[in-house]
C-alpha cells in the first residue's frame, strides 16, 4: 500500500517535469498563446460575447448585414429543405453560387450550425467563429515561426500580435476575408519546409489545394506572396550551386501548381464567375505604357498620410461614426492600407534595417534581405504593389495582409536580438516617436466618440512606455533587469493590442441579439427620431446605434412561409414575388425568406444584368450599381410584368391600380399583377442591341420590351424590325409609334403564343412548355451566363443573349417542351483535372518515399 502511494507521489512531479521539459516547449507555449488570446478576446469582444451585440454591421461594414448573412441564410435554407443547387433564384434574377466562398472552412462551420439550429440561430454564433479564426491565425503563425531558430517568447509575442493584427480585425469583419490571414502562414510554413528540405514538406500541395478551394481572389494573392518568399529564401541559402537554386525554386513552383491543379474542381468554376461574368476586374483597356506609368506614379499625399496612421492604428480616422463622419480616408475604413501590428513592430522593423548591417549573417543573406525590403517599400509606396496583387488591374490595398507575416517575422528576430543584449539606434527611436506622435495627435483632433479618444490615449501611453523600454535596453546590461524590461514590454504590447482591437468594434451600428419588444417599438422610435434630429453630433450618431430593432421579428415572421405556401398551392408555374416594404435589408430579404424576387445586392454583379438595368430601368438601382430594388418601384406594374413579378406582398392593401388583392394571410396582403406576367416571353421580331441601347428611353421602354427582342448584331435575323439608329428617341415617344412598326399578323402571333415555365424543385433545372403560332424567339428572365443549356423537344438548342442581359433562343412554330439546365461552367473540366492532379500527387509522394527508402 505504501509502495503504491510513493509511486503516485513520484509520478505526478515526473509528469509535470515532462510538461515543462524542452521537448514539450512548443506545445506548452501554444497552450499559453491560446490562453492569452482567449482572455484578450473576452475583453475585446465583451459586448459581443456577453452583451447584446452581433458582429453584423449596419455602418461602413454594412455588407455583412445587407449581403453576407442573407447569402448564408439562403444556402442554409436550401440545404435544410433538400433543394440546394449551384444556382439560386432567391438572389436577384439568379446567381451562380460559386460567386460565394462555399468552401471557406469557417463559413462551412457556420453553415453546419445553421442547418442544425436554423438560420436565425446561426447568426448568434458568428461572434464565436470570428474569435476561433483569430485563435487559429495565432497558432498557425506560431507554427510558421517554429521553422526558424527563434525563442519561444519571441514566437509567443509575435503570434499574439498576428492573431489580432489590424487586417484580421478590420477586413475580418467581412468574414471570408479573414481566412486568408490563416491560410497564408500555413502556405509559408510548408514553403519553408520545402526550402529547408524538412519532414512534412510533401504536404505543401495539399495546403495550396485547401487555399485554392477557398477563394480564387485570395489564392492569387497568397501564392504570389508565397512565390516571392520562396525566391528570396532560396537566394539566401549558402552552399548551393546556381543549378541547385533554380531546381529548388522551380520544384517549389511545381508544388504550388500541383496544389492548384488538385483544387481545380472548385477553383476553375470560381474563376469562371470572376473572369467571365463580373466586370469587377476590368482593366479599362489601358495600354501597356500607360499602365506602366500608372504603376509608378506616386499616390496623392492623402494616401501617405493614411499609410502613416495605419502603421500605428486602424482607428485614427473614424470621425463621428465610421460611416457618417468627416473622414480623412483615401477610400474608406477598409480599403485604405491596413497594416497595424502594434507600435513596437514599427520601431523594431525599422531598427532591423540598421541592425542587419552588423548581424551575424552571410553577405548573400544580407543582400537578399535588403533587396526584399526595397521591394516591399516600393510596393507599398507606389501603385505597383496594389496593381500586381490585384490581377494587374486597378490598384487596391486589400493585398496588405501578405506583408503582415514579414513584418512580424522581423519583429520576432529583433525581439531575440534585444533579449540577447542587442543595442538600438536612439536616433531612429526618436524619429519613429515623432511620426507616432504626429499620427496620434491628428487622430485625436479628428476623433469624435470618447471610445476613439480613449484608445488614442492608451496608444499614446503604451507608445511612450515602449520608447522608454527600448531606450532602457540600450543601457541595461544585467540580464535579470533586461528580462524585467522585456516583461514590461510584453505587458505594454498586450495592452496596446487589446485596446486597438476592441476599438474596431466599439461605437458601431450592429445587429442586436434581441429585438425591441413590440409593445415598446412606438415609444422607442419616438426617442430615436428625437435623438436623430438632435443638435449634438454625438447624440445624432449614437441614435443609429440605439435604434429600435425588429429584425428577427420581421425577417422570420411566421406568415411569410404561409404566404409562400399559399402561392405555391395557387400557382404551379415559375413566378417572381416582391414586397413593398423592407424586412431587415435594403435588397436581400428574398434570400433569407426563401422567395424568388429580383432585388439584390451583389458586389460581383453579373455584368450583362447590370448593363440591362443601366439601359432600360436605372430606377431599379439603389444607392449604387451593386444594389437593385423593386420595393420602391411597385407603381410600375408594366416593368414588374416584364420582369416576371406576378405577386406583391404588403402589410396593407396596395392602392396602385395594376395590383389586385387576392387574399390576406396572417398580417400580410397578397396582390396579383393585373397584366399578363411571365418569366418567359415570346417575340416575332428583333432589333439590335445597339438600337435598344441608343433608343430606349423612359417613354419608349415598355414598348421596346413588350414588342421586340434585342439581340447582338451578329445574331440578328433577316426578319429584324428596322429601327434606324439615326432615328431620334424623341421621334419614338408613344406606344403606337413603336407598335406600328409591327404587322398585325405579328401582333396576333405574339398574343396567341406563350411560354410557360414550371416551378422548379431545384433552381438549376427548369422545365416548361411552348406554344408558338409562328417561328420566333423566346426570352427567359434568367441572367445570360455560361453554364445554362437548353433543349427543345429533347434537342440541344443554342442560347442567345436577349435584351442585353437574359437567356434567349430561336423557337420554331408549334407546340414544344423545353428544359433549361444549369451546370457551373468549368465544373466538369475542373473535376477531371482535380482527379488527374490528385493521382499525380499520390504517385509523386509514393515515388519520393520509395527513393528515400532506397537511399537508406
Question: Could you describe the 3D structure shown?
Answer:
With 856 residues, this protein is an alpha+beta fold. It has four domains: 25-57 and 101-503, no CATH class; 516-549, no CATH class; 554-678, no CATH class; 681-822, no CATH class. The protein is 54% helix and 12% strand. It contains 35 helices and 22 strands. The strands form seven sheets. Strands 15-16-22-18-19 form a five-stranded antiparallel sheet. Strands 5-9-11-10 form a four-stranded mixed sheet. The chain is globular. It starts with a helix and ends with a helix. Mean pLDDT is 90; it is low at 4-10 and 715-735.
Walk me through the topology:
Elements: H1 2-20, H2 25-44, H3 46-49, E1 53-57, H4 63-80, E2 87-88, E3 95-96, H5 105-117, H6 119-122, H7 126-145, H8 152-163, H9 166-170, H10 176-196, H11 204-212, H12 216-236, H13 242-262, H14 264-276, H15 288-295, H16 301-312, H17 343-355, H18 363-381, H19 383-388, H20 404-419, H21 426-446, H22 450-475, H23 479-503, E4 510-512, H24 521-532, H25 537-545, H26 551-555, H27 559-570, E5 576-579, H28 589-593, E6 600-601, H29 607-616, E7 621-622, E8 624-628, H30 637-643, E9 645-650, E10 659-665, E11 668-673, E12 680-683, E13 686-688, H31 689-695, H32 701-707, E14 709-711, H33 735-739, H34 744-752, E15 754-757, E16 765-772, E17 776-783, E18 788-792, E19 795-797, E20 800-802, E21 806-811, E22 814-822, H35 827-855
Parallel strand pairs: 5-9, 13-14
Antiparallel strand pairs: 1-4, 2-3, 6-8, 7-8, 9-11, 10-11, 12-17, 15-16, 16-22, 17-21, 18-19, 18-22, 20-21
Amino acid at each position: 500500500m505504501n509502495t503504491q502511494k510513493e509511486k503516485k507521489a513520484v509520478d505526478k512531479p515526473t509528469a509535470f517535469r515532462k510538461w515543462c521539459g524542452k521537448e514539450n516547449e512548443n506545445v506548452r507555449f501554444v497552450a499559453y498563446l491560446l490562453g492569452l488570446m482567449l482572455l484578450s478576446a473576452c475583453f475585446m469582444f465583451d459586448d459581443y460575447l456577453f452583451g447584446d451585440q452581433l458582429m453584423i454591421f449596419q455602418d461602413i461594414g454594412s455588407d455583412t448585414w445587407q449581403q453576407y448573412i442573407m447569402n448564408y441564410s439562403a444556402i442554409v435554407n436550401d440545404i435544410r429543405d433538400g433543394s440546394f443547387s449551384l444556382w439560386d433564384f432567391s438572389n436577384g434574377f439568379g446567381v451562380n453560387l460559386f460567386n460565394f466562398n462555399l468552401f471557406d472552412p469557417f463559413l462551412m462551420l457556420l453553415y453546419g450550425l445553421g442547418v442544425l439550429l436554423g438560420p436565425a440561430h446561426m447568426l448568434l454564433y458568428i461572434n464565436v467563429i470570428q474569435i476561433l479564426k483569430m485563435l487559429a491565425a495565432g497558432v498557425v503563425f506560431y507554427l510558421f515561426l517554429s521553422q526558424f531558430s527563434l525563442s519561444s517568447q519571441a514566437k509567443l509575442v509575435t503570434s499574439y500580435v498576428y492573431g489580432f493584427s489590424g487586417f484580421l480585425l478590420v477586413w475580418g469583419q467581412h468574414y471570408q476575408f479573414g481566412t486568408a490571414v490563416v491560410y497564408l502562414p500555413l502556405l509559408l510554413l510548408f514553403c519553408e519546409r520545402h526550402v529547408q528540405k524538412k519532414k512534412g514538406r510533401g504536404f505543401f500541395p495539399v495546403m495550396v489545394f485547401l487555399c485554392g478551394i477557398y477563394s480564387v481572389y485570395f489564392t492569387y494573392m497568397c501564392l504570389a506572396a508565397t512565390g516571392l518568399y520562396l525566391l528570396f529564401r532560396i537566394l539566401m541559402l549558402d552552399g548551393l550551386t546556381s543549378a541547385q537554386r533554380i531546381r529548388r525554386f522551380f520544384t517549389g513552383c511545381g508544388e504550388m501548381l500541383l496544389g492548384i491543379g488538385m483544387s481545380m474542381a472548385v477553383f476553375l468554376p470560381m474563376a469562371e464567375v470572376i473572369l467571365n461574368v463580373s466586370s469587377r476586374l476590368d482593366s479599362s483597356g489601358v495600354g501597356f505604357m500607360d499602365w506602366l506609368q500608372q504603376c509608378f506614379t506616386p499616390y496623392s499625399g492623402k494616401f501617405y498620410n493614411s499609410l502613416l496612421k495605419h502603421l500605428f492604428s486602424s482607428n485614427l480616422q473614424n470621425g463621428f461614426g465610421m460611416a457618417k463622419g468627416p473622414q480623412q480616408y483615401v477610400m474608406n475604413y477598409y480599403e485604405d492600407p491596413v497594416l497595424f501590428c502594434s507600435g513596437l513592430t514599427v520601431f523594431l522593423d525599422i531598427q532591423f534595417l540598421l541592425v542587419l548591417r552588423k548581424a551575424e549573417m552571410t553577405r548573400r543573406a544580407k543582400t537578399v534581405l535588403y533587396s526584399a525590403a526595397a521591394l516591399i517599400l516600393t510596393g507599398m509606396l507606389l501603385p505597383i504593389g496594389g496593381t500586381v496583387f490585384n490581377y494587374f488591374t486597378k490598384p487596391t490595398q486589400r493585398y496588405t495582409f501578405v506583408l503582415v507575416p514579414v513584418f512580424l517575422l522581423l519583429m520576432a528576430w529583433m525581439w531575440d536580438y534585444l533579449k540577447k543584449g542587442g543595442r538600438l539606434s536612439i536616433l531612429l527611436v526618436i524619429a519613429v516617436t515623432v511620426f507616432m506622435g504626429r499620427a496620434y495627435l491628428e487622430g485625436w483632433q479628428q476623433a469624435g466618440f470618447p471610445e476613439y479618444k480613449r484608445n488614442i490615449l492608451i496608444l499614446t501611453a503604451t507608445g511612450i512606455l515602449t520608447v522608454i523600454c527600448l531606450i532602457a535596453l540600450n543601457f541595461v546590461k544585467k540580464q535579470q533587469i533586461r528580462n524585467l524590461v522585456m516583461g514590461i514590454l510584453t505587458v505594454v504590447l498586450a495592452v496596446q493590442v487589446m485596446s486597438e482591437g476592441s476599438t474596431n468594434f466599439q461605437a458601431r451600428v450592429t445587429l442586436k441579439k434581441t429585438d425591441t419588444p413590440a409593445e415598446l417599438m412606438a415609444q422607442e422610435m419616438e426617442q430615436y427620431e428625437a435623438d436623430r434630429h438632435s443638435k449634438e453630433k454625438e447624440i445624432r450618431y449614437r441614435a443609429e446605434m440605439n435604434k429600435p430593432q425588429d429584425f428577427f421579428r420581421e425577417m422570420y415572421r411566421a406568415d411569410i412561409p404561409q404566404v409562400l405556401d399559399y402561392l405555391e398551392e395557387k400557382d404551379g408555374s415559375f413566378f417572381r414575388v416582391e414586397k413593398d416594404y423592407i424586412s431587415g435589408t435594403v435588397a436581400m430579404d428574398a434570400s433569407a425568406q426563401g422567395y424568388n424576387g429580383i432585388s439584390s445586392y451583389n458586389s460581383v454583379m453579373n455584368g450583362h444584368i447590370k448593363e440591362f438595368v443601366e439601359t432600360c430601368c436605372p430606377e431599379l438601382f439603389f444607392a449604387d450599381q451593386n444594389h437593385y430594388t423593386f420595393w420602391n418601384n411597385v407603381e410600375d406594374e408594366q416593368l414588374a410584368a416584364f420582369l416576371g413579378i406576378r405577386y406583391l406582398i404588403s402589410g396593407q392593401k396596395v392602392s396602385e391600380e395594376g395590383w389586385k388583392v387576392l387574399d390576406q394571410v396572417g398580417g400580410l396582403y397578397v396582390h396579383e399583377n393585373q397584366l399578363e406576367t411571365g418569366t418567359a416571353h415570346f417575340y416575332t421580331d428583333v432589333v439590335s442591341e445597339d438600337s435598344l441601347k441608343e433608343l430606349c428611353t423612359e417613354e419608349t421602354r415598355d414598348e421596346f420590351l413588350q414588342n421586340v427582342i434585342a439581340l447582338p448584331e451578329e445574331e440578328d435575323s433577316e426578319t429584324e424590325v428596322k429601327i434606324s439608329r439615326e432615328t431620334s428617341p424623341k421621334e419614338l415617344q408613344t406606344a403606337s409609334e413603336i407598335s406600328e412598326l409591327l404587322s398585325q399578323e405579328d401582333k396576333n402571333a405574339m398574343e396567341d403564343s406563350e411560354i410557360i415555365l414550371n416551378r422548379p424543385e431545384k433552381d438549376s433545372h427548369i422545365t416548361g412548355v411552348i406554344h408558338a403560332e409562328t417561328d420566333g424567339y423566346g426570352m427567359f428572365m434568367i441572367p445570360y451566363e455560361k453554364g445554362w443549356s437548353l433543349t427543345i423537344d429533347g434537342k440541344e438548342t443554342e442560347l442567345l443573349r436577349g435584351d442585353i442581359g437574359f437567356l434567349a433562343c430561336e423557337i420554331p412554330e408549334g407546340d414544344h417542351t423545353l428544359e433549361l439546365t444549369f451546370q457551373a461552367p468549368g465544373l466538369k473540366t475542373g473535376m477531371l483535372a482535380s482527379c488527374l492532379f490528385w493521382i499525380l500527387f499520390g504517385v509523386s509522394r509514393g515515388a519520393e518515399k520509395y527513393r528515400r527508402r532506397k537511399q537508406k
